[in-house]
Design goal:
PH_GRAF, alpha+beta, membrane, PH-like_dom_sf, cell membrane, five-stranded antiparallel sheet, SH3-like_dom_sf, 5 domains, Substrate Binding Domain Of Dnak, Chain:A, Domain 2, six-stranded antiparallel β-barrel
Length: 768
């Protein structure tokens, strides 16, 4: 039951029930007043909190904008540049969002706070004033009436008549005021319904406008997010490959530090303790120096340096060496010592102490200038014969073999084949095209082993740095022109061999649909084979990715590079110190494109080993991008391969590594790499079961075979999907698929949903 209406006729009766109804109306208006007052307080707190949030978000955006990643080396890949620019993009998105939030805060003040405050002051405040007048007139009316009724009847008639007139006038005034007050009460009761709700409606309109603007920003951000996820995945895959190379170099240096010292203009350098003689009472002292020697000039430099004093460096001392002699322990009470004599101090030898006997031998050899270089393979007639025979056999027998040049042969067989081919007497007797004794993977491994064993890489140490430069910067056309120019600077034999090989690799890439060896994959395999720096350093490992790009350029443009002469006016390649150009604007990239079918990339490193081979060669790095890096494709693809070890004839993988290898990005339209399994690492038993169905030994051949699992399992959708083809299934998150099997099409599963059977993207589901 709501409030009872106030009848105007009841104003004249002014009955107790009328007064009770008036008090009910007054109580309701008081409750409304308190509600509006509390709402205004909360609204102001909301505005203050919004402003605080906006300030915090802006500070966060400034922090993102002001930070910049530093990189190792002298250039970045395109993916790395896009990642570097991502923080600035994030800052811009936040800035745009906070601008909309400021608009919301202003609209709350104008559309909610001010109208409610105006209604409370002007309307409810007016009712309060009317109530005061009504109460005052009520008191006055009934006081006067009681006083009038107490008049004595003995008063003069004129006095009584004047008193009656006064009471009547006062009663009329009271009735008029009562009518106005009742009218005002009922008016406010009706007015509050729209005067209070309309500002709240405006507030929600502004709030939803803000959320809509956020939704629009999210849609714009989604395209950028998809491209950035690809950049991040590519960078992560390159990091995995680079990390393994760095760890391998670290272990090599750990095992034999002397064989992996950096090549520089010093023949020998390192720490030695130098004897400093003092006057007779004080004897002598031994001070640690960092020493450097150049055999060309016979200049010996030593700098005192003490690690324990915070790395304090003393004054450099330089002298020309005349001779060096070994000190025996019968002449000095210290081990590992030798004497040097300077040309400016004849007859005054300087005694030095090495850290060990081996260290002293190295110093003695360096100071005497003894070095030995052994060359095994040569770029001669035999070498050309080997390469041509191998290429002919590969193109005849194995051009369509999956993983050509990535699957490696048994080490002992490869060495035996190379020894036969290197011998002029037996080379012509080896029939690679028709003999079943030599597998294709043995032939391809022999080719790569020969090229890696040359005393100098095919593209030479001298031009290595110049080839790397165009791969790090410039437009695709300028890169091709620079590589074209440099190829014709190679020695004639090197260029001839390179042309033969690249022509063959171009032919291999034309069969990529069958052998899965795209230009990018061939670049990964042959980059370190055809190009390598003169010294192994971390900086050189960071350039591996650019070596791959150079090989991709050669393959994609072999007709132009080898069949035409370079432009005679083409300038010399730019210096390594030139900074790479800024990354192109994000809008120039193809965004939001969806791959209709996942492209298969050969991702397994399978090696059949015998007693003398138990590891994969270095070229078995993770598979590169599907798109060629040299073409600067604006839509990079994922790359990745499962980490694992080879034990006997079995491929062993760790379940955690396997889960980390599979690419599973939310919002990705379709998988762009072969994802063989998508099993959570939290369930090792399930992982091992799946692995056992994928790889098993073949007793007849002693080799591994990758087979498609025939296990019929259930799977649950973890992302929604809209079918793009009649053979695909559409589904929402949580859909349960029956009878799930691995499809013949890599990256896809086959399953049944609601009685319909079709294809399912593998990285959209989890096995139950």
């Amino acid at each position: 039951m709501g409030l009872q209406p106030l009848e105007f006729s009841d104003c004249y009766l002014d009955s107790p029930w009328f007064r009770e109804r008036v008090r009910a109306h007054e109580a309701e208006l008081e409750k409304t007043n308190k509600f509006i007052k509390e709402l205004l307080k909360d609204g102001k707190n909301l505005i203050a909190a919004t402003k605080n949030l906006s300030a915090a978000q802006r500070k966060f955006a400034h922090s993102l904008r002001d930070f910049k990643f530093e990189f190792i080396g002298d250039a970045e890949t395109d993916d790395e540049r896009y990642i570097d620019a991502s923080l600035h993009e994030f800052s811009n998105f936040l800035k745009n969002l906070e601008e909309q939030r400021e608009i919301l805060a202003l609209s709350v003040t104008e559309t909610l706070i001010k109208p409610l405050e105006r209604f409370r002051k002007e309307q409810l405040g007016a009712v309060k004033e009317e109530k005061k007048k009504f109460d005052k007139e009520t008191e006055k009316n009934y006081s006067l009436l009681e006083k009038h009724l107490n008049l004595s009847a003995k008063k003069k008639e004129l006095q009584l008549q004047e008193a009656d007139n006064l009471v009547e006038q006062n009663r009329k005034h009271f009735y008029e005021l009562s009518l106005e007050y009742v009218c005002k009460l009922q008016e406010i009761q009706e007015r509050k319904k729209f005067e209070c709700v309309e500002p709240v409606l405006s507030f929600f309109q502004g709030l939803f406008t803000f959320y809509h603007q956020g939704y629009e920003l999210a849609k714009d951000f989604n395209h950028y997010k998809m491209a950035l996820q690809i950049n991040i995945q590519n960078t992560r895959n390159r990091f995995e490959g680079t990390r393994s190379e760095v760890e391998e170099l670290m272990n090599k240096i750990r095992r034999n530090p002397q064989e992996h010292k950096r090549a520089n203009h010093f023949t020998m350098e390192g720490y030695l303790y130098v004897q400093e003689k003092r006057p007779a009472p004080f004897g002598s002292s031994w001070v640690k120096h960092y020493c450097m020697y150049r055999k060309e000039t016979k200049k010996f430099t030593m700098i005192p340096f003490e690690h324990r004093s915070g790395g304090k460096v003393g004054d450099e001392e330089l002298f020309v060496l005349t001779y060096c002699t070994k000190r025996n322990i019968d002449t000095i009470d210290r081990r590992f010592c030798f004497d040097l004599e300077a040309s400016d101090r004849p007859g005054v030898p300087v005694t030095m102490q090495a850290f060990s006997e081996e260290d002293r031998k190295l110093w003695m050899e360096a100071l005497d200038g003894k070095e030995a270089v052994t060359v095994i393979f040569k770029l001669d007639k035999i070498g050309f014969t080997i390469i041509k025979k191998c290429i002919s056999a590969v193109e005849t027998r194995g051009i369509n073999d999956q993983g050509l040049y990535r699957v490696v042969g048994v080490s002992s067989k490869v060495q035996r084949l190379l020894s036969l081919l290197m011998d002029a007497k037996t080379c012509n007797e080896v029939d690679l095209e028709n003999s079943v004794d030599w597998e294709v993977k043995t032939i391809t491994s022999a080719m790569k082993q020969y090229l890696r064993s040359l005393p100098e890489p095919l593209m030479t140490y001298e031009l290595h740095g110049e080839f790397i430069v165009p791969a790090k910067s410039g437009s695709p056309e300028s890169r091709v022109n620079a590589v074209h120019f440099l190829v014709h600077k190679l020695p004639e034999k090197n260029k001839e061999m390179l042309e033969i090989l690249v022509k063959h690799l171009a032919n291999v890439s034309k069969h990529a649909k069958r052998n899965l060896m795209t230009v990018a994959n061939l670049g990964v395999v042959f980059g370190p084979t055809l190009m390598r720096p003169q010294e192994e350093t971390v900086a050189a490992i960071m350039d591996l990715k650019f070596q791959n790009i150079v090989v991709e350029i050669l393959i994609e443009n072999h007709e132009k590079i080898f069949k035409t002469l370079p432009d005679a006016t083409f300038p010399e390649p730019i210096s390594m110190s030139v900074s790479p150009p800024n990354a192109p604007p994000r809008q120039s990239r193809r965004q939001g494109q969806r791959i209709k079918r996942p492209l298969a990339v050969y991702n397994l490193c399978l090696e059949l080993d015998d007693a003398d081979s138990h590891s994969c060669p270095r070229e078995d790095t993770p598979t590169g991008s599907i798109d060629s890096l040299s073409s600067q494709s604006p839509t990079p693809a994922f790359s990745g391969s499962p980490p694992g070890l080879l034990d006997g004839n079995h491929l062993i993988m760790d379940s955690g590594d396997l889960a980390g290898w599979t690419t599973n990005l939310p919002g990705q339209s379709r998988p762009s790499m072969v994802s063989w399994m998508n099993i959570p690492s939290a369930n090792p038993a399930a992982t091992n079961t799946a692995l056992s169905t994928f790889f098993f030994p073949n007793p007849a051949t002693g080799s591994d075979r990758a087979v498609e699992s025939a296990a019929h399992r259930k799977a649950r959708a973890v992302y929604p999907c809209e079918a793009e083809h009649s053979s695909e299934l559409s589904f929402q998150i949580g859909a349960i698929f029956e009878d799930v099997q691995f499809s013949r099409e890599p990256g896809w599963l086959e399953g049944t949903l609601n009685g319909k059977r079709g294809l399912i993207p593998q990285n959209y589901v989890q096995f139950l």
